[in-house]
Amino acid sequence: MNIPDDLAGGADDRQVRDARIVLGCLVEPGSAALHRLVTAYGPVEALDRLTSGLESGPLAEAAALRLQGRSAAELAERLWERAARLGVRVITPESAEWPGHLADLRHISREGPSTIDRDTFPPQSVWLRGPHLLAEAVARSVSLVGARANTVYGAHAAAELGYGLAGRGWTVISGGAYGIDAVAHRAALAAGGLTVAVLACGVDRPYPLTNSALFEQIAEEGLLISEWPPGTAPFKLRFLVRNRVIAALSRGTVLVEAGARSGARQTLRRARELGRAAMAVPGPITSEVSVGCHEELRREPHEPVRLVASVEHVLEEVGGVGDLAPVPRGAQRPLDGLDPVEQQLVDAVPRRGSAHATQIAVDAGVSLRDALAKLPSLALRGHLREQSGSYSRPRR
What is the pLDDT of residues 284-317, one digit of tens each? Predict the structure, then answer.
């Protein structure tokens, strides 16, 4: 696939991209304060104000610490060199492959003491490894998230959903973690489909290390993405920060298995806040790893979470008009096509021996006229046997 050259374009374009990339390195992703600064002045002037002493306060202090005495231009050059050396590319909101629906993140910020709820704004830049364009890869996508310590049941459900969605041309997004995340990624790859792993660390620093082979396969066949530049460590808070991106990139999020305090529940909450489809797979009522799913399913109607048990259920929530899941039906039985009077007549025929039309009509509670009209037809269709005016049940 032809990947746009982020180094192409005029000097002004490069200046904006450099500013975005440096801002994304100096300030933790999602920062409400940085978003306001960039909205007010644009990325180039915002960076200049942040690094020249025109801005003060925690944001400027944190940026100064990360600059370590270097200029913004020196940091930008170092970041580009690292990207080239690692075979990594970086995109910004000005890039052709930037997913426009990441902008929805600006609507879910909530003022208050919690930085997780306040700092929910779109990334300044995203680092990628993989052969696909991000906007195209996530245009038809579903996020599958859940417990790290999954059960066999959870692994089965995640594999069925991941394989089925990928096989139908949907991209499977997850976080690359142990458990449900890894199962979902592997199932999508096994189906020959596309999967995207949204990391809470640099794309060159796989975490957990035991998933290194999986990350390499995703980098070759799908996409590894991160808001943090290469080399960034996976701190605990960063997993919660990146969850908003998992939810924002996809049309809907499915919670496959989750305990009461699972971080995956926060991804589902982000999906609800963003107006995306929010879904959960039910589990055994005795399973601690399904408590979170069940609590989500008990939510009030104004913030619903839909129960899903199949790929068809998921597609009904995220697909287009007409993508309706088939209604589950039992196996077709020989007598299913009979009308109510015919059903009564068949039921009234003795299970052993035979009976005449009059006795069958009496036992069935129908008129003799109806019995005489319908019994020959029932015999002709093989539902009854007729011999010398008597009717019996056929041998099965």
Answer: 999 999 999 999 999 877 778 999 999 999 999 9
Report residue 166 as tokens: 């990928």
Could you state, in order of their start, the residue ranges of all structural domains in the chain? 125-318, 340-392
Say which residues have a Cβ less than 8 Å from residue 116's Cβ, sequence separation at least 6.
237, 240, 241, 266
The CATH class for the domain spanning 340-392 reads mainly alpha
Q: How far apart are CA 234 and CA 228, in angstroms?
A: 10
Whether domain 125-318 has CATH 3.40.50.450: the reply is yes
Choose among 203, 308, 220: nearest CA to 257.
308
Query: Taking a C-beta distance cutoff of 8 angstroms, is the pair 218, 192 a contact?
Result: no
Q: Which residues, given as ranges, of the chain have pLDDT below 70?
A: 1-11, 320-334, 396
SS3 274: helix
CA–CA separation, 95 vs 34, rounded Å? 20
Residues in the chain: 396
3-class secondary structure, 128? strand
Q: Which residues contact 99 (CB under 8 A, 6 or more apart)?
A: 134, 135, 138, 249
